[in-house]
UniProtKB/TrEMBL annotation:
UniProt keyword annotations, A-Z: Transferase
Name of the protein: Glycosyl transferase, group 1 family protein
Matching Gene3D superfamilies: Glycogen Phosphorylase B (3.40.50.2000)
GO MF term (any one): glycosyltransferase activity
Residue ranges annotated for the Glycosyl transferase family domain, each copy included: 187-350
Gene Ontology terms: biological process: bacillithiol biosynthetic process
Amino acid sequence: MKIGITCYPTYGGSGVVATELGIELAANGHQVHFITYSQPFRLTGREKGVFYHEVPVSNYPLFEYPPYDLALATRMSEVAEYYELDLLHVHYAIPHSVSALLARQMLAARGRHLPFVTTLHGTDITLVGLDRSYLPITRFGIEESDGVTSISQYLKDKTLEEFHIQNHIEVIPNFVNCDVYKPRKDREAARAIYASPGEKILIHLSNFRPVKRVTDVVKIFAGVVERVPSRLLLVGDGPDRSSAEYLAHNLGIQDHISFLGKQESVNELLPLADLMLMPSKLESFGLAALEAMACKVPTIATNVGGVPELIDDGVTGRLFPVGATDAMAQAAIELLTDEEKLQAMANAGRASAQARYCSSQIIPLYERYYERVLNKG
Ligand code: GMT
């Protein structure tokens, strides 16, 4: 198949899933065309079968708000025509599904059918889509899609409940390449870069948006480091980074925390940790926790959204109410001081990732779904 993929190419779970999906599809022999405003950050540009088409946005002074959606629709229709795409797959409903709808209409006027699939990731529905000003157009984009997928059952239910749409939504969970996200053989030596011998490593990976509650990460770690010699690696960057740094200084634990900023090869960092912290206010899936699980790193997370579908409390990680930082710190201490329990959880996490979420199992679900959409049209 020749597939066009559009996503937010910057730091964020939906962009990561879209990019990894494109890479895996290309590895399976499909031709994949990314149509985005900048090159997705996990793409090297050298993958066989993967092509990148930038969406140029005019900054003519008259436009206080450059019309990105229109530029995207134009580029989608051009790429579809020049490269004879079979379908478009857009990740994140706003505004991508509406741009795809326009592209479909533009091509239909010239006698070509270009179906599009929309994948819902979370914030497009739970936060952005529920802003009244975006709701009608988001609902329209979803209703007009030739296929709709959701990354968790939770998000499917939420979409049907909040948007009252009639479309069938196919749940295709996020995935991880278990050959790339795996424990490191040189783990002990590599840990020495970040921690002294005998110190445990906790890690957090996100875009530091308020929904991630990064200050809760610092509070949990403050409870842990009081009792267990340890270090916290904070991977990523975003609006709440300075509040996290401020809190770390206020609590006097800044020397135990490394702010690593945005990192490209998180598959090399995650396996160095003993525990991942993900105390988010909401996660429709929690991709970072899945990547950690595949690397044998259990996650202490909140019991929200789609997280309980991913993490089996007490078996592959631990789940707590939002804001329960003391309880999360206590759970972390219990695991970090009981090697046998920690290892059992780490092994169970990797086994679950391999059994349920490996790309080798999930990519064929997308391929079959594309075929169904193409056969419909
Ligand atoms: O969580 C974010 O801030 C980014 C957002 C996105 O769309 O890029 O993440 C959502 O999609 C990820 C990939 O499917 C999921 O793993 C995240 O749970 C989801 N975030 C939320 O629901 C808050």
